[in-house]
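Appendix B, record 7
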Amino acid sequence: MSKLAMEEDYWNSSKVKGFDFGDDIGQLTETKRTMGRMHIDFDDDLVSCVDMDVIDWSENVIKARRPGNERGTIPDPAFRHQEKFNTGLRRGSTSSQTTPSSLFSLGQPARVSGATTPLDSQKRHSVTPVGSSQSISDMCPVMDREQLSSSAPRDMDSLQAENARLTRLLHSGRICHAGTEETVWKMFKNQPYALEPFRCLRDKMNLLDHAVKLHDGNIITAILIYLKTSLRKEILFAELISRPTAVNHYVSLLRKQADERTLLELLTALGRTEEAALIEYKQHLTMRDPEKRLAFLKRCISLPFNSEDSMHIQNQYTLLDHQGIIEHNDKKVEAVGQLAIFKDHPRKASILFMPLVTTLFYCCFYHYGETEGTLSSPANLKKVFKISNKQYLWTALAARSQLHMWEDVNALLTSKGWFGGTKKKALIGFHRVVEIVSKSNAPFTMVNEFVGLVEDAETRLDLALKHKCHCVVIETLCQMKDQQQLREYRKQVEKNSPEEMMIVDALKNSQIRW
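Structure tokens (predicted):
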């Protein structure tokens, strides 16, 4: 009893008093200044510091100055707590529920950054009414300035923590997920699915096998993309060896992604060395530096190609080497202006990286008269690269006709006979010769001669009509014994012309059996 009396005396004699809006205005001003120095945002009437969090005044914790209330009035929930606190002070109650430190923490939830969380019972601080004689340090002894200034919203931290917790549960297998076959069917039906839960190698391969059985390329590709990011290359390549369908899709995927390094490693692991060498060889197409491309082609010769492909790469290397030398020399000659051919017909483009036929045309155009021992001689190119006679004749005729060098054209088509005589001969056929020289506006006598040398009668007649070679037309119609067409053609020639007289003589010739 004596102890209870002592406690009652202590509480009755305490300087702590209840909330009163009639307190001195000076005390309120001093409290505002103190709180401002501690970076606390406060209302004109109330200040709260509960676990370094800002209390949402819209909840049931405390509500002040509600619209419609007069200044200094407190709504019922907070007013009841205040009355209970004042009653406890008057009665000297020792209950923890009526102490200043628990006035606004009677099990009520505190809203922190929009989320409602229960207050920690070990970190509850009092919210002392403004005007109390107790200092701010007594009201919030645990909080300092840094803690008060760091009371920021923690929604992102909460979300990250929840995400980490769910990730741990997923990896631990405590969250159930669909099976491999069910997941593939969801992919096929365009339903939401997840491949990340499948972490076992057997499950991943089962996914791929089910997709292959379903014969859906999109699903196979999607699973291969997941396997590419979740498995090591060595393991994935070893598993794909026994799955040719998946290998084909994976090769196609790597080609579309332009992942040449992984593609080369895959083809090498599968034993497809020649295909891997071809992919590596294609890289030279992107090189624009002649020296770098030349060095790369030299290295590609040693790649595991077959003999025919290796020969082509060797020829390509030799051609690029020749082109570099010819380009270097012709630039110097053109700059000095020693040769008339470069003055009359300036070069329009570089010869580097050009095909063999273009290089041959270039040499026939600018270096036709050079001896075979010269690197830029057309004869030298023909010998080194084993160009066929037909290809050489066609290219040389086009180059010399463009320059109107008709003597060279005749020389190309003239060959020696058995008894030392000469005759015209064209390996490509004279109908192609006519097409080539006619595009360069060859003389009519030359065109007429070459048209008459066409072997096929129908072709010869068509070319003769096209180029108006009347003598050839008449001779061909007589050879074909087409009297009716010859009479019709008589109407197209001029009257009393040599051609008309030739037609009349042919129609009167009794030796021709029409």
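Remarks on this record: Strands lie at 110-112, 115-117, 414-416, 422-424. DSSP finds 26 helices and four strands in the chain.
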